[in-house]
Amino acid sequence: MTITGKYIPVDHEGIHYALCNQRCREWDHPYEWEHNGSTLSSAGCGIFSVIHAAQYLGGNPLTPEELADFACQTGGRGDDGTDRPVLLAAMQERGLAARHGFSYRFDGLRNDLDVLHDHLAQGNAALCNLHAGHIVALIGGRTMDGEKQVLAADPYSESADPRVRDAVRECIPGSEVSSFIQNEAGFVCGTQITYAMFWVSLATVRDFNLLYRLP
């Protein structure tokens, strides 16, 4: 098994993605909160998710390192990860949102799932939590067998995580991530394959931010 590196090349519905693999320890660029020693690998899910949404929306994204530095400089790095409303507001005010292919309307965190699904069905994107403490990009919406579903681009490829896996409805071929499994003592005791893009039930989404595609 070849362990997946920093990027995952995926072609899906006519769009080429270079998804960021947060599991790769090579993402060692500092992304600290009050000198806590964190890096993009350990805490960069929000940064990577903005990059993924930008790829979907057709923008010209900054590198993760550049966006991480911008977040730290503008107050968009919070004690539990990226402070999304602050980061997105700073990006909108300084023209970086447009460079990333979207606008942000300063509407903060939201939880009306029907509004989210309609928003995605219109070709827009969003950032959200599928569980507390981890941010993913949402880049599609559909209804299958009467259930509303959303397409997640997840930098930490948590398709098999116990907090998410029962809500997964389909994994996107080509988005596989091979990584090591470590025990609590830090020893490698196996390998695993998870997916970075997957359809998941809308019902599991919480605390989302809407990103509006530019005209």
What's the helix and strand layout?
Elements: E1 7-12, E2 15-20, H1 40-43, H2 45-57, H3 64-74, E3 77-78, E4 81-82, H4 84-93, H5 96-99, E5 102-103, H6 113-121, E6 125-131, E7 134-144, E8 147-153, E9 168-171, E10 176-182, E11 188-195, E12 197-201, E13 206-213
Query: Judging by the overall fold, what is the CATH architecture?
Result: Alpha-Beta Complex
Largest sheet: spatial strand order: 5-13-6-7-8-12-9
Q: Work out the number of β strands.
A: 13
Largest sheet: 7 strands, antiparallel
CATH topology: Cathepsin B, Chain A
Q: In DSSP terms, counting alpha (H) and pi (I) runs of 4 or more, how many helices?
A: 6
Q: Any low-confidence stretches, pLDDT <50, length ≥5?
A: none
Number of self-contained structural domains: 1
For the record, what CATH class applies? Alpha Beta
Mean pLDDT, nearest integer?
95
Helix content: 10-25%
Radius of gyration: 16 Å
Alpha-beta content class: alpha+beta
Residues in β-strands, percent: 25-35%
